[in-house]
Amino acid sequence: MYGALVYTLNSSYADDISTSQLRYSTDLEGMIPYNIDEDQKVSMLTIRVQNNKLTQPVAKVICDLDVNKGYYELVELGVDCPICPSDCSLCQGRCY
Q: What's the predicted TM-score (pTM) here?
């Protein structure tokens, strides 16, 4: 695997809202890790992993972070279409 996982948490966002982003560098392979600490899940707003060599479908636990489901704050999941599950509202119709 080439590249590195980058996780940043910025708590100095407007109105004291915590934002976070999970991104990958180019050429990563395999899958998006879904073993994410509960505190990180709650504060995560964006996951962008498109334009890599990821081959495994996005895990249900990632799709369940959708802000529209009520508990978590994830509003964007940027992935390549081949790894977006048909039941994942975060990336269906918005994949790359």
A: 0.72
